[in-house]
Design a protein that fits this description.
This is Glycine dehydrogenase (Decarboxylating). It holds the Pfam family Aminotran_5. Keywords: Pyridoxal phosphate. The structure is a single chain. The protein is α/β, with parallel strands linked by helices. The protein folds into 2 domains: 252 residues, Type I PLP-dependent aspartate aminotransferase-like (Major domain) (Aspartate Aminotransferase, domain 2); 122 residues, Aspartate Aminotransferase, domain 1, CATH 3.90.1150.10. The protein has 15 helices and 16 strands. A 7-stranded mixed β-sheet has the order 6-12-11-10-9-7-8, with helices on both faces. It has a 4-stranded antiparallel β-sheet with strand order 1-2-3-4. The chain has a 3-stranded antiparallel β-sheet with strand order 13-16-15. Strand 7, helix 6 and strand 8 form a beta-alpha-beta unit. Helix 3 packs antiparallel against helix 4 and helix 5 packs parallel to helix 6. The longest helix has 24 residues.
Length: 461
């Protein structure tokens, strides 16, 4: 028997098998039959079972872009449908007796996964962008109410996610805050390059008697992707008197190591639909216990306002909460793999590095960072002869690869430095997740080699 989330009476919402290997979802003692699944062949999930779990993926596409939208296995999708049916069957009872209990169960699992001190430190929100809005809203209020002086600084990385940059503009700049971007080199060769630039940015923020009120630090940058040495940067923030530290880890949980006690940030946000197999959309927001936590509120105000962020976030009006309720089923799925999520992360890292080196060797280019500075994604330089000269070129080339070669992969434009001629200006970001096969990357390798052989340039698109 494979259990999935708790129902609203505190019993398990269960998947059962009969003698014909039909799965049954039990709702209040009623059994509904669903299509048969193959019996498990070993103690750990097999390759054929993995293929079955992701059979809904388009077989015509080499999907090497898990980083953008993640992936959800069939087992979890089935559990989600059971929760949706449960809600639609009797919404009033579900809301009164089931929703909060189910979300608390998910929060408890997340608390253990990230090594938080207490479940009250964990809220569930829609995505990392929502989490950023919650933190930046608080910062905006502090400027508006005079707790922070006009011109005090918020520091963020130059490679911060675009939506987070816009949120900082919307909340902080408009309220009178001074925004400082930390320039980062790319390609990058060491953590010391990042640390040095971060120290310089903090110094700029403290000029003329001003203070750095908030540091927004990515755990894994999106484009270009690099694992940031967050523990070192958080430590520097403490030494330099930065008021609060928010780690934007959209790619954190399931992609790289996440431990709240080791990281030591005030706030940490991570999507669970990117690398932790949840359906979209769900993210955790960790808020370390402090007096400032009471100032945090969900930007959608409901009748739960003032009852604490976790409670506010658990009800923001009528909507589909099923992604927040399937976390127990996701945990069951990942534990079918050897060493669970830790084993998945380790194998994804090893395989993405191997595939990245294979592509760089085939194209005569280079990786965007050393292997130890990547997690489950890595950047590979594209041949300079492709003529990538703008962001627009990257979008056109990405579309061309999808439509002509069946390859889905994001591409980054690197602005050449002064004096550079014939340098690599385009980098591909490849991901590796459990459903990927080596042929996915071979297809990408051969597509680029064909483009080069044909004399293709982006100017022809």
């Amino acid at each position: 028997m494979a259990s999935s989330p708790h129902n609203h009476h505190g019993h398990d919402l269960e998947l059962e098998e009969d003698h014909n290997n039909n799965h049954h979802i039990v709702l209040n003692g009623d059994s509904k039959t669903h299509p048969p699944k193959k019996p498990r062949l070993s103690s750990f999930i097999t390759e054929s079972e993995i293929r079955s779990e992701f059979a809904h993926h388009d077989p015509a596409i080499a999907r090497i872009n898990n980083g953008s939208f993640g992936s959800c296995p069939g087992f979890v999708m089935e559990a989600q449908r059971a929760w949706q049916r449960k809600y639609l069957a009797q919404p009033d009872d579900f809301y009164v007796n089931g929703l909060k209990k189910g979300i608390l169960h998910s929060r408890t699992i997340i608390k253990d996964l990230i090594n938080a001190e207490h479940v009250d430190e964990v809220s569930i929100v829609d995505n990392a962008t929502t989490a950023a809005a919650i933190i930046l809203q608080q910062t905006s209020w502090a400027f508006s109410e005079g707790k922070y002086d006009k011109g005090d600084a918020v520091v963020m990385l130059h490679y911060a996610y675009g939506a987070v940059k816009k949120s900082i503009e919307a909340y902080v700049t408009r309220a009178g805050g001074h925004v400082i971007e930390v320039p980062l080199p790319f390609p990058v060769s060491s953590n010391e390059e990042i640390i040095n630039e971060f120290r310089l940015a903090l110094e700029r923020g403290k000029r003329n008697g001003k203070r750095v009120r908030l540091a927004v630090i990515d755990h894994v940058t999106s484009m270009p992707c690099v694992v940031i040495p967050i523990k070192e940067l958080v430590k520097i923030c403490r030494e330099e008197g930065v008021d609060q530290v928010f780690v934007d880890a959209a790619h954190g949980i399931g992609c790289t190591d996440v431990d709240m006690k080791e990281i030591g940030a005030d706030y940490y946000a991570s999507n669970l639909h990117k690398w932790f197999f949840c359906p979209p959309s769900i993210a955790l927001l960790y808020c370390r216990k402090s007096p400032k936590v009471s100032d945090l509120h969900h930007p959608v105000v409901s009748h739960e306002y003032g009852n604490g962020l976790a409670v506010e976030s658990a009800w923001i009006g009528t909507r589909d909460y099923s992604p927040q309720l399937v976390v127990p089923s996701v945990l069951e799925f990942v534990n079918r793999f050897e060493d669970g999520i830790e084993g998945i992360k380790r194998r994804n890292h090893e395989k993405v590095v191997k595939m990245g080196k294979m592509l760089a060797d085939a194209w005569g280019t280079n990786l965007g960072c050393p292997p130890e500075m990547c997690a489950s994604m890595i950047m590979i330089g594209l041949p300079a002869c492709l003529g990538i000269s703008s962001e627009k070129d990257t979008l056109k080339l990405r579309t061309h690869l999808r439509e002509k070669f069946g390859v889905e992969v994001p591409i980054y434009y690197r602005v050449p430095k002064n004096g550079e001629v014939g340098s690599i200006t385009g980098y591909a970001r490849i991901s590796h997740q459990v459903y990927n096969k080596e042929n996915d990357y071979i297809r990408f390798r051969d597509a680029v080699k064909q483009l080069v052989s044909d004399g293709f340039t982006c100017s022809s698109l």
